[in-house]
Amino acid sequence: MWRESMLGTTRHFGGFLLALAALALPTALSAGTLENVRQRGTLVCGVGQNLVGFSQRDEAGRWSGFDVDFCRAVAAAVLGDADKVSFVSLSATERFDALRAGKVDLLSRNSTWTLEREGGLGLLFAAITYHDGQGFLVIRKPAETSALELGDSKVCVQTGTTSQANLADFFRANSMSYSEVPVATQDEAAKALIEGRCDVMTTDHSALYALRLDLPNRAGVTILPDVISKESLGPVTRADDVAWFNVAKWVHFALVNAEELGVTSQNADAALTSSRPAVRRLVGAEGGLGKVLGLDDAWALRAVKAAGNYGEIYERNVGLKSRLGIPRGLNQLWSMGGILYAPPLQ
């Protein structure tokens, strides 16, 4: 009897230890990527394939763009150097598999946050860095002013994206027919439009602005005002990596808070002497918040100095003074009429 009681107690205690181990497991797993990046000395970041304003490479091999700058901000926060990034160009169809297989540490590639991608693929979207929406670019159709006039059109749409399903939903909901012309890349879409294989292209509005730059006779090209979907774009990590997920998430939040607090790449060092508590916590002058992320206290300061605050990144790459000339719209700060909002660093 005593032996059976002791065995039961032992089993119970063993189960208790297993439960504790299960609770600790996410922390142990999540330390992996951060430590791997530090040991390697380089962040491996998956980006898009030559999308103007978001991820493009010049003749010298230098990458630039909105998504690229986020990678650099993370590298600055984690490694102390924004140039310690190895960029991997990924297509829409291979991006998530590459992340899941560990070929990249972080995916920063105009990817839409969806339930299926996060829950079904075992991924975590760290934040919404760009609020977008799917639209239509038309060529050789000067009379069209609304997407509701696109019945019987030949529509180019990129494979492996949410745009395909959104396109089908929109035409079905409005009892219109269309012919889908699948394309693998934006370059192929531009070629198909020029050759007349399709006269309509659908994708995120931001990508349509970029695509328009590659088309001749832009006077005959129109981006319709219709928005047929919510495209919440942001960086992605693996779901078994909670600590790394938090690093990516809070780098974005730091960039947004920096804009709200008026901290820029130019005045970041001067902000160290600010008397405002929120500014001092942001730049690491007080609060000791870096240890919560496994970083030092100057992580956010380095990110802002390297890439600029959110507003600087937006305007430099896709804003009104850039080649794309996209108004900030929803991507304006919540205090300025947009929906861009970040929790405080405290």
TrEMBL record:
| UniProt KW keywords | Signal, Transport
Ranges for the Solute-binding protein family 3/N-terminal domain?
42-271
* Pfam families xrefs: SBP_bac_3
Keyword Transport included in the entry's annotation: yes
Q: Which GO biological-process labels does this protein carry?
A: amino acid transport
**Entry keyword Transport:** yes
The family database entries (CDD domains) matched by this protein are listed as: PBP2_BztA
Family, similarity comment: Belongs to the bacterial solute-binding protein 3 family.
* This protein's name: Solute-binding protein family 3/N-terminal domain-containing protein
Upper classification of the organism: Bacteria, Pseudomonadati, Pseudomonadota, Alphaproteobacteria, Hyphomicrobiales
Per UniProt, what is the name of the gene that codes for the protein in this document? peb1A_2
